From TrEMBL:
InterPro entries membership: Glycerophosphate_synth (IPR007554), Glyco_trans_2-like (IPR001173), Nucleotide-diphossugar_trans (IPR029044), TagF_C (IPR043148), TagF_N (IPR043149), Teichoic_Acid_Biosynth (IPR051612)
Protein name (database record): Bifunctional glycosyltransferase/CDP-glycerol:glycerophosphate glycerophosphotransferase
Keywords: Cell membrane, Membrane, Teichoic acid biosynthesis, Transferase
Localization in the cell: Cell membrane
Pfam family, one: Glycos_transf_2
Family membership noted in the UniProt record: Belongs to the CDP-glycerol glycerophosphotransferase family.
Keyword Hydrolase belongs to the record: no
Native source organism of the sequence: Actinocorallia libanotica
Gene3D superfamilies assigned: 3.40.50.11820, 3.40.50.12580, Spore Coat Polysaccharide Biosynthesis Protein SpsA, Chain A
């Protein structure tokens, strides 16, 4: 082995596949990936095992307890066999072609340490190269050098992931990653000072993901005090290696710079700990300042040095607070004005706006819940299933639906509702405790402290969703992703139907909600469906006795303006044979209309309010890329046929989360002839199709046991904790 990439893994299921795919680049010889599952609480372990099962370069170690990033790296190092090791964070990824660039540079220069550049990838789509990338070029660097010849290298990012290290060199120094925060600096600084041969690769190799949430060093707490022990370890190493004395002034400045950064970020050191942190920084300053050290030329920085030396926290903090107060005052004015404008917009008028703002100052009704589905279309989907179970398990809570005026007459008898845009709607949004929707509520209502939002979604995401759509402008259709994330920031709970969904939601909506891995509440009904229910629904829909009813439910295509069947309906239904009848279910984005179809072979059920009715009534499903396939697979004995005539176009324009062609839920057809044959020959029911459907069910329907709605209600409305589902 030439290169061992060590990847500790914990809580990154939404990003892990991209990480591994980027590392496992074809054409990089002598590569091994050692993945350490650090007792990850999500689906990471299963993802790692999946990769190891089909790529011999991947080796997985599942730790019995969580040991933290530093110790997980040490475990990986003990198992590595490559000439070089590269410590890789599992939520990041490499730039295109970077693996081969690293390999070639290592072969050319044979350094002790190779340092390469990186770019920050922000959640909103911006990718920016490191701001100090000029240090790779100015002045021009030889192929190899020692730190004394180029001390500016110590100003580069001191992380483990932007370096490939000769394994025997690292092991020979006796260095190991420590526990706690900033666990890599007590390795990365010493190896640069001890190395005889350093080399630079002036190329963006590593993409450092700037996550909106999840980075432990960007959260406040006492763990940031770990930085002091880490720097003490560095100076202890230098004491044992006198040849590093020449770097003491520079190392001292880097230490104080970093500690000031930690203290200066408002989200790191807790307010009650700031003075103690400053005192520890003063101790480090007085203990390790070299005798020949000179103050920085920067006047403001030099003043900070003097305050640190004297441990004058009061003067240090006073100047900081004065500046923060000026900034906070400006923000508060803007925030107040924004809230007032939102209140007026939501209620469409000054009078209603005043009433709404008044309601916002009244107590939240702890026993009031708001339900909605599909942009106020009516009573449907996961919210309807949760509503019914909430009435059973938490009857003290009153659930009220929000519907459009034109859909009010379609509401089931006995279900309370208000019409969207009315004063009653405004009062409901201002005062209710709970909010349940399968899409986002409008932007205007203000979420109050104490209100609880439940986002159920309305399908397993075969297609890319949320921030993942940024790479697919046709599907995104000028979406404002900042506004999208602002809406998702209101969610307290997000329902997931299966592990694929959890991965996609983590990645597409990186917000602070709790993931409810319960299965889909709307599918509880499919689990409990009976033959009698099926017969009654078929009679109501007009399915002729003795016919096989095939539910045709195509998805919306972002590159198409209106519903157009992907095959000739008349031709296909006639060729399928007299034993079949087609139930046509156009996507809800399209209005139901008279399509002039032969009623003896095709029943247009596009206007039917319940997809669950149609699934139970049918004998087989015909779809393309619709999420209905994941729901239909819950019906264990019914075949699924995928018509994928434009699969490549769909992938390019919308993006997908897994390869449907390689893992279909049954027969997959690419032409009309293949589609006809799937039914006319009975191939949709053969052993191969049954086997594929069983594998699909095992992967995507394992949480569907008929109790999904109950789990949601118990967690959200009753406050009970849920067990983690099997992955």
């Amino acid at each position: 082995m030439f290169l061992s990439v060590i990847v500790p893994v914990h809580g990154v299921q939404g990003y892990l596949r991209q990480c591994l795919d980027s590392i496992l680049e074809p054409g990089c010889p002598g590569l091994e990936v050692i993945a350490i599952d650090d007792r990850s609480p999500d689906g990471c372990g299963a993802i790692l095992d999946e990769y190891a099962s089909h790529d011999p370069r991947v080796r997985v170690v599942h730790l019995e307890e969580n040991v933290g990033l530093g110790e997980a790296r040490n475990v990986g190092l003990s198992l590595a066999t490559g000439e070089y090791v590269w410590f890789f964070d599992s939520d990041d990824y490499t730039a295109d072609g970077a693996m081969l660039s690293v390999y070639e540079r290592l072969q050319e220069t044979k350094p002790d340490v190779l340092i390469f550049d990186y770019a920050r990838s922000y959640w909103h789509g911006k990718v920016q190269r490191s701001v100090i990338n000029k240090l790779f070029r100015e002045p021009p660097a030889p192929d190899t050098f020692a730190l004394r010849d180029r001390p500016s290298v110590l100003q580069l990012m001191m992380t483990a992931w932007n370096k490939a290290i000769r394994r025997e060199f690292l092991v020979g120094l006796g260095l190991k990653f420590s526990g706690g925060y900033y666990e890599d600096i007590n390795v990365t600084y010493p190896i640069l000072m001890a190395a005889e041969k350093l080399s630079l690769l002036d190329e963006v190799v590593y993409i450092y993901r700037q996550r909106r949430r999840g980075a432990i060093t960007r959260t406040g707490g006492k763990k940031h005090f770990d930085a002091f022990k880490q720097y003490e370890r560095i100076f202890a190493f230098m004491a044992q290696h006198p040849e590093t004395d020449q770097y003491r002034p520079l190392m001292f400045d880097r230490t104080i710079w970093h500690l000031l950064v930690i203290l200066g970020r408002g989200d790191r050191v807790l307010p009650e700990d700031r003075e103690r942190f400053f005192g520890e920084m003063s101790r480090i300053y007085r203990t390790f300042r070299p005798a020949d050290h000179t103050l920085p030329e920067d006047v403001q920085l030099a003043a900070k040095y003097r305050l640190i030396e004297k441990n004058n926290y009061r003067a240090f903090e006073t100047s900081k607070k004065l500046n923060e107060r000026r900034i906070a005052a400006k923000k508060q004015v803007r925030k107040y004005r924004g809230k007032a404008r939102k209140a007026v917009r939501f209620t469409k008028g000054k009078a209603n706006g005043l009433r709404y703002r008044t309601q916002l100052h009244m107590a939240i009704d702890e026993n009031l819940a708001v339900y909605a589905a599909y942009w106020y279309r009516g009573y449907a989907c996961n919210p309807a299933a949760i509503y019914e179970k909430q009435r059973e398990l938490a009857p003290h809570i009153k659930g009220v639906w929000v519907v459009k005026r034109g859909n009010a007459a379609k509401m089931p008898e006995g279900v309370p509702y208000v019409v969207a845009g009315t004063p009653e709607h405004a009062r409901l949004m201002a005062r209710a405790k709970y909010f349940v929707n399968n899409v986002n509520f409008t932007d205007d209502p203000i979420k109050r402290k104490g209100q609880v939002h439940v986002q159920t979604q309305h399908g397993t995401p075969l297609k890319k969703m949320g921030l993942d759509q940024m790479e697919y402008p046709v599907g995104a259709n000028d979406m404002d992703f900042r506004e999208l994330i602002d809406r998702a920031d209101r969610w307290d709970f997000l329902v997931s139907s299966n592990p694929l969904s959890s991965e996609a939601w983590d990645r597409g909506f990186p917000c602070g909600y709790e993931m409810l891995e319960t299965g889909y509440p709307r599918n509880d009904r499919l689990v409990r469906a009976t033959a009698a229910e099926k017969a009654a629904l078929r009679e109501r829909l007009g399915v002729p006795e003795g016919k096989k009813a095939v539910l045709y439910a195509p998805t919306h295509r972002d590159y198409m303006k209106r519903f157009t069947p992907q095959f000739d309906l008349r031709n296909v239904t006639e060729a399928m044979g007299d034993e079949y009848v087609l139930l046509l279910r156009a996507h809800y984005f399209y209005r139901a209309k008279d399509r002039g179809l032969p009623e003896d072979r095709i029943i247009d059920v596009s206007a039917h309010p319940s997809a669950e009715d149609l699934m139970i009534a049918s004998d087989a499903l015909l779809t393309d890329y619709s999420s209905i396939m994941f729901d239909y697979a819950v019906l264990e004995d019914r075949p699924i046929v995928i018509y994928a005539n434009d699969w490549e176009t769909y992938k390019r324009t919308r993006g997908v989360n897994f390869d449907l062609v390689q893992q279909p839920p049954g027969v997959i057809a690419f032409t009309e002839e293949e589609l006809i044959d799937a039914f006319a020959s009975g191939r949709a029911w053969n052993d191969t199709a049954v086997k594929d459907r069983a594998a699909f069910r095992a992967r995507f329907c394992s949480w569907e046991d008929g109790r999904a709605a109950e789990r949601v209600v118990r967690r959200v409305f009753l406050g009970e904790q849920l067990p983690k589902p099997a992955k």
